[in-house]
Design brief:
Blueprint: E1 2-8, E2 13-18, H1 21-29, E3 43-45, E4 68-70, E5 76-79, H2 93-111, E6 114-115, H3 120-128, E7 137-138, H4 143-151
Parallel strand pairs: 6-7
Antiparallel strand pairs: 1-2, 1-3, 4-5
């Protein structure tokens, strides 16, 4: 997993986790990476300072490992000196509980809605306009279709997906 600090064209900074650098690039190209503040899909990696674990506290006898740093343009920077330790994290209990809740929400939505595939935007608009009966649906829509629906105050939101669901 890779954590990126991201910045939208409106200047909002936020962080997001991705299974890999390639996954970030693919999701960004498809317009799936959006700012949580303004929903802009014009998002780039922000300049990040690498996290460096202190070697004078806690684990002086562990062998440190260097880690490459990613630059905003996607290129790789020079490898960190081997005297710096690479931070490692395990998911904390609240994160695990949050993922469980997200998975339960997704499972509930899937179990209680109709998958309409690529017809999602069209059907959501027809329901909003009263042309067809309202019912819970899920499907696929382009970034442009979602923006147009939101501008017309059609209530739509992305179905939550966890990184492990993609594998």
């Amino acid at each position: 997993m890779i954590r990126y600090t991201l910045k939208c064209d409106e200047g909002h900074e936020f962080e997001s986790w991705f299974p890999s650098s390639a996954s970030y690039d693919t999701q960004r190209a498809r317009g799936l990476v959006t700012c949580p503040t303004c929903n802009s899909a014009k998002v780039d990696k922000a300049v990040m300072a690498p996290s460096v674990a202190r070697t004078d506290k806690g684990m002086p006898d562990r062998e440190p490992v260097g880690a490459p740093t990613s630059l905003p343009d996607g290129g790789a920077a020079a490898e960190a000196p081997s005297s710096e330790a690479t931070p490692v994290a395990m998911m904390a209990r609240p994160d695990s509980e949050l993922r469980t809740l997200i998975r339960q929400l997704r499972d509930h939505i899937v179990a209680n809605s109709d998958d309409v595939g690529d017809s999602f935007a069209d059907l959501a608009r027809k329901m909003h306009d009263g042309e067809i009966e309202h019912r819970p649906i899920r499907g696929e829509a382009t970034v442009e279709e979602v923006k147009a629906l939101r501008e017309d105050e059609v209530e739509v939101f992305p179905l939550p997906v966890l990184p492990e669901d993609r594998n």
